[in-house]
Structure formats: structure tokens, C-alpha cells
UniProtKB/TrEMBL annotation:
Region Disordered, annotated ranges: 315-342
UniProt KW Repeat keyword: yes
Domain called TATA-binding protein interacting (TIP20): residue spans: 1004-1166
Record-linked PANTHER family: TIP120 (PTHR12696)
Native organism: Esox lucius (Northern pike)
InterPro entries: ARM-like (IPR011989), ARM-type_fold (IPR016024), CAND1/CAND2 (IPR039852), TATA-bd_TIP120 (IPR013932)
Keyword Flavoprotein: no
The protein, known as: TATA-binding protein interacting (TIP20) domain-containing protein
Length: 1194
């Protein structure tokens, strides 16, 4: 410590030296000292350092001054508060000095200090006091200053401070506003411009009164309209306010828009530009309020998009010839440009119009059909625009239109779908682009390529007719010496998308290979890697393997070029990794599609692959390429030369801790064993088998599934190699996986296939009975009961698979299972397994030859164990599927005759309806229907639910006749009327049905939303009459009967966000979300989730309501649980806090959210409360890592 202060006093001494180099070095050293975290200054040193630095700000040498300013940043955070105030005071005084250099340095210093202050949300006192100090000095500097440069600096610093610390200055906002407003009429435009920026930052954080004052002032000045120049400034101010705080200006738009429209018609280009820019910010920032005016905005934009008074666009064809003439006359071209830049401002108006159209198109999905009628042709017609900047914006607007068309969800396909509309305009687009693609300008050509790429993404195959026109344009850019590298990359990626999305035959007449091959040889690695991607696609086009009947094209002339350019890149060891990977993939494709024509080059190339397989960086790509080659259906490539080395290497990959590598390797080995069974030796297979046991585990089901599929392939192709499996741990791993509760879906199917293949190999000690014992052993040994019910189902499925593979063994085993169920000494778990196995076997094998079966199962219905009962009902249904005529009438008879067992028997019936073939069930549909209707009125809700499921599944078998019947049973025959049913439960079930429709088939309900939403929102309200008090001993307990229906209503709202967002009035929707935030625990949890979704889906709407949403969130986070509450209460409250915090983190992802005064206050409240701060930080960490992961997977 002592040494540090000694060191610093030493530096301070040198700073007084007369030699500027000493001063410079000493300041530099001080800077590095201050940047250390460990440094602590005592009061005396602090005072000296601050005094010295401020003195050096006035140093004669500019470099020393610059360094001193840089020292201010780290200094502010190291010294005590009163020292910071000294610094700020001195800087403010210097700002008003007569020396220009000192003023400049001081203003830089102030900006540095403001930049270093902790953000407003941290609630630090230092920031508040410093800002208050600066504000007073700045307002007077802005208001009274004759010297414009001081004024400009002061405005700049003010804007900076409002942007960073606006929330702390709330008390000063009125005085800041009153000093800023007069500056809007300043004679200097620069002053006005900076004032507008400062106002923009002010409105983000100011209170409502200040905001109203500002808007009223602007509106009254605009309606007075004294001079053009001030009017321009006021319109710019309104646009700036709307950009920064669109959520607050919305309610004034009714007054503002007519004024702006009026000014559009005045002949003043600059004013027009500002008016259209204002429209753009309204459209982007106040979507709801601007809605009635969108038509007006579009018509104004379309009018000014073509506004070019000083230029004559003649008839198209003449224009083209004239352009050629211009091309020859370079000087003429130059003079034309000068003219257009200096005098003609109309291009700015056109650019503003294009940008505004872009905004309208991007924010109004529902008007797409209208856009394709009016906006699209107008934009296409302007592709010929002469100003390059404007042209880029016109292209961008059209790209936005295409991007809006992209989501081709089924419900968009109305009478004439948007993509059909695009199709009708493709010829116009191509005609307009065709001329642009050979322009000199690089930017224009890049725009063309982006446009074609997006067009093909929206409408694959759209350009089929136009390829002959477009390909020369693409080749032109690839061969053009003057093309920039970015242009070539864009051209290649555009070509790639076109090749991927059109039929191969379309390209056969065109000479695409030479220019692409030339690009593969390009020295710039990014071009090479794009070109290799295109080459890979070209190989597929030259010889389409998947359409052999169309393979009429003679590929031989191109093979040599393609192979030579790729092998060059494949051999090189020192190139970029992406190039390496793409060269491997591309060569894999060449061998796969053209391998039979490579002749003697092939073995050498395969050996390069072997080298790449040994390299950690390229191994994954090589495995994929080898898999592709091994799977080549057309020409079996002879891989024998490398198999001996490759398979052990592949086997070693199964140990690696890289999941993608394991999966690709398993897939590759599977194909190698299938297609090269004669060249794969037992030694190779043993190497692979040794690596398999660790891969078969419940921790990664997908890897397990791939491993099991590989074993299945082995069993079919190399049955002998499985002899050793019995002794190894593979089989025990498989058996323990069967018992895992997680086994389901693809992994389960793979397991069943494996057991069937295994028992089919007839390997010794792995016969039917051996495997059966292994599977069922633990259940019969009763040593350890299986913990999970799911395991019994999996074992039963495996038993059935084995029995299907060995039909001769079936009857004996079935008999054994029947005895197990009958035997009174059997444990429940044995019965459970026996019943489930009977069901699974009976599903595929007709068991009607077993006379005792029915009685045994019906007896099991009266077992004491619930699990055995449900297994019996499942078994009965499943066995019936195997022989409907025998068992279905029996089940129906039992349902009528056994009222006590109805619930179980109906479950059997559900199993039958769900699993049997439609043709088999058809004859019985009427009987089943009548029977089910009898049970609709059953008193037990459980039974009614099963009946409902049966009716639904039955209706799907013959919808034409049964659906109208089902509708007929609804009270009014109309589903929507049930939402108004007097019975609470009917309304609840109607909402559940509605939710299911919204989730699975949104097209059914999209057009009904206008009539449904009022009822839906109505059910979200808390009803006093449904809340009752129940006495429980000495306590009174309130029960809310309306909770379930409210929950159902909020669940529907959540689903609608995903499927029908564009049909909702978000502001109405948010009103109900806001009520939900104050409701019961379950509903709060749902609305917190909705808030998080809404923050990403429609941030601008949420921003407008932010202040009303923050309050309930804050209330939830600050609620205390009573000290004597039960543990569950504490857990619930914790869960609520976490969930509310997630919503807060999501709201903070909206860029302007933290500028809201209430939000920043809440943030400082969070950071000052250790418990909340901890929750907040952990959630922020989770969300940022989740974002990283989603980026990785994409």
C-alpha cells in the first residue's frame, strides 16, 4: 500500500516536469496504475491526483491533454464522491472558457465521466448527485450561450446523459424541457438537430406531464406553421419522439397524422422526406393507432416512390439503347451524377417512401393480398431507379414483402394464397432483374442475388421457366474481373439455392461448370468454400441418383474438371477448416454420383479420406462422406482397399465424447455392414462390438437406438458374429434398457426388431426360451420388484415380438401365462406381466383357441391391485383386436351386463377402437355407438370421460355419418353456443375443446375468433358468486369454483398466441393478461409465461403497457409469506417469484424497456434485495446459455 502511494507521488512529481515526454510517460503510467483493481488511494493522494489531472487538461501539449482525459474514466470509479464533484465542477467551468481547445477537452472529459457512471438501474447515489450537478450547469449553458460551439457540446452531453441516466433526473425534466424547446427555432440547423436527439432521449424516461407539455407545444406550433424551416424541424421532432417512445405517442396520432398528411402536399422535398420518415416511425412504433391510416400512408408512399421530376424515364426499350450509349460515354455519366447530387433532392423523398413501404409491409401481415395487388407491381416497376441508394431500399422493401409471404402455414391458403400471387408476379420480377444483373454497380447486383434467393425460398421451383434468362447473369458476375469477393459469394449462394430448389433437367443446357470450377480455385477461402458447396449440388444435378429414369445427360465431359478442382482442395493441408470440410463433402458426393467414371483415381482419393478420418478436425465430416459413398445405390464403389483400416478407426470413435460423431459413426457402420457384408471380417466386427456396451443406456436414447439398429443389421447380415454377444455385457445392457421406464418410441421399436432378428439367427444359448427367461426372469425371481410400471409394458412388448418370430412356441407360453394369472400364489407383479404379455401377444396372434382366457381375464378384473385391474382391461382390449368377431360382441355384452365393471370394460373398448383396423370395425360401429350413448348419462365423471374418448375415436372411423350425429347431441347443434351454456362445467369443457382445436387445427377457429373472443375473455374474470366459504373444523377455507374455468380460458389465450397471433387485438388481450397477473397462483404462473412469449412476439405493444404490467410483477416479487405458514406455501411463493423474474428478464429483452421509470425503479429494487438479485442473476444466466444453445443447434 505504502509503495503504491509512494509510486504515485513519484509520478505526480514527474508530471510537473518541463519536459513534455516526462509528463506524457508519467500520465501514461498513472493511467495503467488506475486501471488495476487493487489500487487504493488515501484521501491525500486522491486530492493530489485529481488536482494534477485537472491541471494537465490545460497542458500545452495536445497528447498529454488526451491522456489526461483518458485517465478520468478509471479515476471516477476509484475516488470518493466529493472528489468526483470537484472534477465535474471544474469541467463544467472549463466548458464555458474562451479557449476553444480547453472547451473541447472538457466536453470530452464530461462525456467520459458520464460514460463511467454506474447505470441508473444500479441505484447508485454517486450517479444521481453527479448528474444533478451537471444538469443545472448544462441547462444554463444551452439557454444563455451566444457561442454556438459551446451550445452544441452542451446539447451533446445532455443527450448522452439523458440516454444513460434519464431516470435519475426526473425532477429536472421540466427545466430541461423548457431550455430545449426554444432551441428548436435556433438559426443554426446543427443546434436544432442535436436538440431533437436530446428530446428523443428525454421522452424515454420523462413523466407524463412533461410528455404532454412537449406534444402540445409541437402540435400547436405545427398548426400555426409559421415558416417552412421550423415546420420541418417540428416534424423531425415528432418522428424522433415516435422512434424513441412510440408507445407514448400513440394516443396523439389522430391529431398528428392529418397535419403530416397536409404537409406532404406542400412542394418542398426536404419537408416531404421528413413527413414520410415520420410515417415510417408511426407504422413501426404505434401499430394499433396507425391502423386506420395505413391506407393513406400507402397511397402517399406509392405516389412519391416514383417522384422524379427532373428525369425522363422514356419507353423501356429506348431507355435500354440509351443506356448502352451512356455506357460508352464515361464523361457524360460523370456529369449526370454531379447534377443529380447537387440540385436534385427528390431521391431523398423516393428513398423515404421505399423505407416507409418496407415498414408497412413488415408490420402488417394481414394485408398481404392487398400488398400484392398494389405495392408489389409499383416496387417492381422501380427496380430501374437511377440512384443506387434508393434502388437498394426498393429492393429491400420487396425482400421484406417476400419474407412476409414465407410462412406457408396451412391456414394461410385462402382463396388465392400469397405464394400463388408471387407466382403471378415472377415474370415481371425476372424481367426487371434481368437488366439489373449486368449493371456495373456491385451493390445492385448483390441486391438482385438476394432477391432471387428469397424468391426461391418462398416458392421453390418458381424460376423453372426463367433459368435460361437468369443463368447468364449469374455467370457474368462469377467471371467478371471487377466483381468484389462479397458479390461472388452472394452469386454463388444464390446459385446454390436455385440449384437446390429446381429440377436437375432445367440446368442441363447451361455451361455452369467452368465458372464454378474457376471459383473453387479462387485464392479467397470464403469464395472457395461457397463454390465447393455449389459444386456438390452441381454433381447431383449432372447425374441425379434419385431419378435414374431421367438420367439422360452425358456427364463425362465435366467429370474431369469437377474432380480435378475438388481433389486439389482436398489434398491441401493448410487451408481453412470450412474449405477442408466442404472439400470432403463435395468429393464424397462426386464419388457417390460419379464414382464409376473415376477409374484409377478412385483408390488414391479413398486413401486421402482415410488420412482425413485420422484427423480430429475433419473426422466427423469424413464419416458422413464415407456413409454417403457406402450408400451409393447406383454404383457400388469398391471400398475394400480402405475397410481394413477404416473400420477399427470408426470403432474407436464410439468411445469419443462427441455425440454427433457417435451418431454418424453408428449410421455409417450400419450401412457398411449392410452393403459390404462380404468384405467385413469377424475381427472388424469384434472391434466394434467391444465398444457398444457403454452406448446402450437410458441416458441417451437416440444413441442407444442407433446401436440397437446396428446390432439388428448384424443379426441379419452376419448372424455368426452374434454368438459372442451372449457372453459379453451387450446383452445385459440391452435387458436393463428394456426395464428402463424411459424406453419408448423409436428406441423401443428398434429393440423389438432386434429381438426378432436375434431369435431368428438360431444362435446357441440365445434361443426363444433363453431370451424369454432373461426378459421375464427378474419378475418371477421376485428378488427385486421392478419399480416402474412402464417396464412391464416394455417387457411384454419384447415377449410378444419374440413370440411372433417363433409362432411354434406361442401356444405353450400363452398357456403358461394363463396359469400364472390363475395361480393364487402368483405375486401382483407376475400377474401384471402375464396379463400384459397376453394382451401384446393376442394383439397379433389369434388366441381364441384358449378356452379359459375370457374367464381368467374377467376374474382379474376383481383383483385387489389397481395395476392388475388396468392391465386386465388393456389385455382384454388388445386380445380382442386379434380376433374381433370372437371377442368384440363378448366385450359389448359384458358392458351391458356388468354395471360394476363398466369403467374397466369401457377402457377395453377404447383400446379396441383405437387399435383395430377400420375395415374390421365397420360392421360393429352401430352397436358400439348405441351402447356408448346409453352410458353418456353415467354419474361418474371418470366413466363419462372414457365414453367421450370412445365416441371421438369411433367418429373418426366413419366421420361422414357419425360427425353430424355427434353435433346433433350438442344442445343447439352448434359448438360455439356451448361457450354460453348456463352450466359452468359445460363451458369449461367447451373451452378445453376450443383449446385443442386452436392447438392442433387452428384453421378451424381462425375465422370464428371475432365471435369467440368476447366469451373467452369473459371467462377470465373472477366471479364473486362462485367463491364460497367452507368450514373445516375451527378453520374457514375459501373455495373458488370458477378457478378451473378461468384456468381453461387462460390456457386458450396462451395457445392462441402461437397459432392465431395476427387475428388478436393485442391491446385487448393484454388487458386480460394484466388481470391474470393479480389472480390465483395457477393463473399467475400462466400469465407470466404469456408475458415472456409476448415480449418476443410483439414487443412494441408490450412496451406501450409496460408500466401497468410492472406493478403486479413487483407485487408478486415483494410478497412475504406468513412466518407460520406450511412448507408448501413457501415453495409456492418461491416458484412464483422465479416465474415472475423470468417474465421480468423477458421484458428486459425489449430494447427500450429499461428506460421506463417504473421498470428502472423495480430493477434497482431487485439489485438492492440480495434474495431477488440472486434469482434474477441465475435466470439471466440460464436464458443467455439457452440462447447460445439455440444458436448452436440452428
Amino acid at each position: 500500500m505504502a509503495s503504491a502511494s509512494y509510486h504515485i507521488s513519484n509520478l505526480l512529481e514527474k508530471m510537473t516536469s518541463s519536459d513534455k515526454d516526462f509528463r506524457f510517460m508519467a500520465t501514461n503510467d498513472l493511467m495503467s496504475e488506475l486501471q488495476k483493481d487493487s489500487i487504493k488511494l488515501d484521501d491525500d493522494s486522491e486530492r493530489k491526483v485529481v488536482k494534477m489531472i485537472l491541471k494537465l487538461l490545460e497542458d500545452k501539449n495536445g497528447e498529454v491533454q488526451n491522456l489526461a482525459v483518458k485517465c478520468l474514466g478509471p479515476l471516477v470509479s476509484k475516488v470518493k464522491e466529493y472528489q468526483v464533484e470537484t472534477i465535474v465542477d471544474t469541467l463544467c467551468t472549463n466548458m464555458l472558457s474562451d479557449k476553444e481547445q480547453l472547451r473541447d477537452i472538457s466536453s470530452i472529459g464530461l462525456k467520459t465521466v458520464i460514460g463511467e457512471l454506474p447505470p441508473a438501474s444500479s441505484g447508485s447515489a454517486l450517479a444521481a448527485s453527479v448528474c444533478k450537478k451537471i444538469t443545472g450547469r448544462l441547462t444554463s449553458a444551452i439557454a444563455k450561450q451566444e457561442d454556438v460551439s459551446v451550445q452544441l457540446e452542451a446539447l451533446d452531453i445532455m443527450a448522452d446523459m439523458l440516454c444513460r441516466q434519464g431516470g435519475l433526473l426526473v425532477n429536472f425534466h421540466p427545466s430541461i424541457l423548457s431550455c430545449l424547446l426554444p432551441q428548436l427555432t435556433s438559426p443554426r440547423l446543427a443546434v436544432r438537430k442535436r436538440t431533437i436527439i436530446a428530446l428523443g432521449h428525454l421522452v424515454m424516461s420523462c413523466g407524463n406531464l412533461v410528455f404532454v407539455d412537449l406534444i402540445e407545444h409541437l402540435l400547436s406550433e405545427l398548426s400555426r406553421n409559421e415558416s417552412m424551416s421550423t415546420t420541418r424541424t417540428y416534424i423531425q421532432s415528432i418522428a424522433a419522439i415516435s422512434r424513441q417512445a412510440g408507445h407514448r405517442i400513440g394516443e396523439y396520432l389522430e391529431k398528428i397524422i392529418p397535419l403530416v398528411v397536409k404537409f406532404c402536399n406542400i412542394d418542398d422535398d426536404e419537408l416531404r422526406e421528413y413527413c414520410i420518415q415520420a410515417f415510417e416511425s408511426f407504422v413501426r412504433r404505434c401499430p394499433k393507432e396507425v391502423y386506420p391510416h395505413v391506407g393513406t400512408v400507402i397511397s402517399i408512399c406509392l405516389k412519391y416512390l416514383t417522384y422524379d421530376p427532373n428525369y425522363n424515364y422514356d419507353d423501356e426499350d429506348e431507355d435500354e439503347n440509351a443506356m448502352d450509349a451512356d455506357g460508352a460515354d464515361e464523361d457524360y455519366q460523370g456529369s449526370d451524377d454531379e447534377y443529380s447530387d447537387d440540385d436534385d433532392m427528390s431521391w431523398k423523398v423516393r428513398r423515404a417512401a421505399a423505407k416507409c413501404l418496407d415498414a408497412v409491409v413488415s408490420t402488417r401481415h394481414e394485408m398481404l393480398p392487398e400488398f400484392y395487388r398494389t405495392v408489389s407491381p409499383a416496387l417492381i416497376a422501380r427496380f430501374k431507379e437511377r440512384e443506387e441508394n434508393v434502388k437498394a431500399d426498393v429492393f429491400h422493401a420487396y425482400l421484406s414483402l417476400l419474407k412476409q409471404t414465407r410462412p406457408a402455414q396451412s391456414w394461410l391458403m385462402s382463396d388465392i394464397s400469397p405464394s400463388r400471387r408471387v407466382l403471378l408476379q415472377v415474370p415481371m420480377i425476372v424481367k426487371a432483374l434481368h437488366k439489373q444483373m449486368k449493371e456495373k454497380s456491385v451493390k445492385t447486383r448483390q441486391c438482385c442475388f438476394n432477391m432471387l434467393t428469397e424468391l426461391v425460398n418462398v416458392l421453390p421451383g418458381a424460376l423453372t421457366q426463367h433459368i435460361p434468362v437468369l443463368v447468364p447473369g449469374i455467370i457474368f458476375s462469377l467471371n467478371d474481373k471487377s466483381s468484389s469477393s462479397n458479390l461472388k459469394i452472394d452469386a454463388l449462394s444464390c446459385l446454390y439455392v436455385i440449384l437446390c430448389n429446381h429440377q436437375p433437367q432445367v440446368f442441363h443446357p447451361h455451361a455452369l461448370v467452368p465458372p464454378v470450377v474457376a471459383c473453387v480455385g479462387d485464392p479467397f477461402y470464403k469464395i472457395t468454400s461457397e463454390a465447393l458447396l455449389v459444386t456438390q449440388q452441381l454433381v447431383k444435378v449432372i447425374r441425379p441418383v434419385d431419378q435414374p429414369e431421367r438420367d439422360t445427360f452425358d456427364a463425362t465431359p465435366y467429370i474431369d474438371d469437377l474432380f480435378t478442382c475438388t481433389i486439389g482442395r482436398l489434398r491441401a493441408a493448410d487451408i481453412d477448416q470450412e474449405v477442408k470440410e466442404r472439400a470432403i463433402s463435395c468429393m464424397g458426393q462426386i464419388i457417390c454420383n460419379l464414382g464409376d467414371s473415376l477409374g484409377s483415381d478412385l483408390p488414391g482419393t479413398l486413401h486421402i479420406f482415410l488420412e482425413r478420418l485420422k484427423n480430429e478436425i475433419t473426422r466427423l465430416t469424413t464419416v458422413k462422406a464415407l456413409t454417403l459413398i457406402a450408400d451409393a445405390s447406383k454404383c457400388l464403389i469398391d471400398l475394400r482397399p480402405i475397410l481394413g483400416e477404416a473400420v477399427p478407426i470408426l470403432a474407436s470413435f464410439l468411445r469419443k465424447n462427441q455425440r454427433a460423431l457417435k451418431l454418424s459413426t453408428l449410421a455409417g457402420l450400419d450401412i457398411l455392414v449392410k452393403n459390404y457384408s462380404d468384405s467385413v471380417t469377424p475381427a472388424m466386427i469384434d472391434a466394434v462390438l467391444a465398444e457398444l456396451p457403454p452406448l446402450i443406456s437410458e441416458s441417451d436414447m437416440h444413441v442407444s437406438q442407433m446401436a440397437i439398429s446396428f446390432l439388428t443389421t448384424l443379426a441379419r447380415v452376419h448372424p455368426l458374429s452374434l454368438a459372442m454377444i451372449g457372453g459379453s455385457t451387450i446383452l445385459s445392457e440391452l435387458i436393463s434398457l428394456v426395464r428402463s421406464p424411459l424406453l419408448q418410441g423409436g428406441a423401443l421399436s428398434a429393440m423389438l426388431e432386434f429381438f426378432q432378428a436375434l431369435v431368428g439367427t438360431g444362435t446357441a444359448s440365445l434361443g426363444y426360451m433363453d431370451l424369454l427367461r432373461m426378459l421375464t426372469g427378474p419378475v418371477y425371481a421376485q428378488s427385486a420388484a421392478l419399480t416402474h410400471k412402464q417396464s412391464y409394458y416394455s417387457i411384454a412388448k419384447c415377449v410378444a415380438a419374440l413370440t411372433r418370430a417363433c409362432p411354434k412356441e406361442g401356444p405353450a407360453v400363452v398357456g403358461q401365462f394363463i396359469q400364472d394369472v390363475k395361480n393364487s400364489r402368483s405375486t401382483d407383479s407376475i400377474r401384471l406381466l402375464a396379463l400384459l404379455s397376453l394382451g401384446e401377444v393376442g394383439h397379433h396372434v389369434d388366441l381364441s383357441g384358449q378356452p379359459e382366457l375370457k374367464t381368467v381375464i374377467l376374474e382379474a378384473f376383481s383383483s385387489a391391485s389397481e395395476e392388475v385391474k388396468s392391465a386386465a382391461s388393456y389385455a382384454l382390449g388388445s386380445i380382442a383386436v386379434g380376433n374381433l368377431p370372437e371377442y368384440l360382441p363378448f366385450v359389448l355384452g359384458e358392458i351391458s351386463g356388468q354395471p360394476k365393471r363398466q369403467y374397466l370394460l369401457l377402457h377395453s373398448l377404447k383400446e379396441i377402437i383405437g387399435s383395430a383396423s377400420v375395415a374390421g370395425l365397420k360392421p360393429y360401429v352401430e352397436n358400439i355407438w348405441t351402447l356408448l350413448l346409453k352410458h353418456c348419462e353415467c354419474a361418474e365423471e371418470g366413466t363419462r370421460n372414457v365414453v367421450a374418448e370412445c365416441l371421438g375415436k369411433l367418429t373418426l372411423i366413419d366421420p361422414e355419418t357419425l360427425l353430424p350425429r355427434l353435433k346433433g347431441y350438442l344442445l343447439a347443434g352448434d359448438f360455439l353456443k356451448t361457450l354460453e351454456d348456463p352450466d359452468l362445467n359445460v363451458r369449461r369443457v367447451a373451452l378445453v375443446t376450443f383449446n385443442s382445436a386452436a392447438h392442433n387445427k387452428p384453421s378451424l377457429i381462425r375465422d370464428l375468433l371475432d365471435s369467440v373472443l368476447p366469451h373467452l375473455y369473459n371467462e377470465t374474470k373472477v366471479r364473486k358468486e362462485l367463491i364460497r366459504e367452507v368450514e373445516m373444523g375451527p378453520f374457514k377455507h375459501t373455495v373458488d369454483d370458477g378457478l378451473d374455468i378461468r384456468k381453461a380460458a387462460f390456457e386458450c389465450m396462451y395457445t392462441l398466441l402461437d397459432s392465431c397471433l395476427d387475428r388478436l387485438d393485442i391491446f385487448e388481450f393484454l388487458n386480460h393478461v394484466e388481470d391474470g397477473l393479480k389472480d390465483h397462483y395457477d393463473i399467475k404462473m400462466l400469465t407470466f409465461l404469456m408475458l415472456a412469449r409476448l415480449s418476443t412476439l410483439c414487443p412494441s405493444a408490450v412496451l406501450q403497457r409496460l408500466d401497468r404490467l410492472v406493478e403486479p410483477l413487483r407485487a408478486t416479487c415483494t410478497t412475504k409469506v406468513k412466518a407460520n405458514s406450511v412448507k408448501q406455501e413457501f415453495e409456492k411463493q418461491d416458484e412464483l417469484k422465479r416465474s415472475a423474474m423470468r417474465a421480468v428478464v423477458a421484458l428486459l429483452t425489449i430494447p427500450e424497456a429499461e428506460k421506463s421509470p417504473l421498470m428502472s425503479e423495480f430493477q434497482s429494487q431487485i439489485s438492492s434485495n440480495p434474495e431477488l438479485a440472486a434469482i434474477f442473476e441465475s435466470i439471466q444466466r440460464d436464458s443467455s446459455s439457452a440462447n447460445m444453445e439455440s444458436m448452436d443447434t440452428s
